[in-house]
């Protein structure tokens, strides 16, 4: 049970085969007295180590450990000098402003259109200023102050 291997060399043919299967895969040599016994032995072997939890008794090797392949695209873009707009809720505010501006384009009575246009314009500008001038500058302080060329 302490042997970490999932495979074994068959005593008759000498080829590598799954250790907890009743018969050798290559020549059918009987490795275990019964399939049930082989399965029980596999379960005891698997319970002996938490890293064996994902193993199958039909495999020759333990499955590879899960890779952590998450990528921080923001940090990568920053290293490459690529400008990415910051994650932000301001685009939603910009859209609300655009909604009021669009409503102002409908031929209502002139005072109503003026009020809608002013409300929409203010909300729209608030969103644009917050996104482009506040959050973006906070995210790229040196880049925005030096305008363009990345300093190395
Ligand atoms: Zn064999």
Number of strands: 2
Q: How is the biggest beta sheet arranged?
A: 2 strands, antiparallel
Stretches where pLDDT is under 50 for at least 5 consecutive residues are 144-152
Helical coverage, percent range:
40-55%
**What is the overall pLDDT average?**
85
Bound molecules: zinc ion
Shape: rod-shaped
Give the strand order of the largest sheet, numbering strands 1, 2, ... along the chain. 1-2
Which structural class is indicated by helix and strand composition?
mainly alpha
Radius of gyration: 33 Å
Question: What's the helix-strand series?
Answer: EEHHHHH
End-to-end Cα distance: 56 Å
Q: Can you count the helices?
A: 5
Strand content: under 5%
């Amino acid at each position: 049970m302490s042997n970490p291997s999932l495979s074994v060399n068959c005593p008759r043919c000498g080829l590598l085969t799954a250790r907890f299967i009743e018969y050798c895969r290559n020549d059918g040599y009987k490795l275990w007295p019964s399939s049930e016994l082989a399965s029980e032995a596999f379960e005891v072997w698997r319970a002996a180590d938490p890293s064996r939890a994902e193993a199958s008794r039909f495999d020759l090797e333990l499955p590879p450990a899960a890779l952590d392949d998450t990528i921080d695209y923001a940090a990568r873009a920053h290293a490459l000098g690529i400008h990415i707009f910051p994650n932000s809720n301001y685009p939603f505010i910009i859209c609300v402003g655009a909604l009021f501006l669009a409503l102002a384009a409908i031929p209502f009575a002139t005072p109503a259109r003026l009020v809608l246009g002013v409300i929409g314009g203010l909300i729209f500008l608030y969103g644009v200023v917050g996104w482009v001038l506040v959050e973006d500058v906070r995210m790229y302080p040196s880049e925005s102050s030096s305008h363009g060329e990345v300093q190395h």
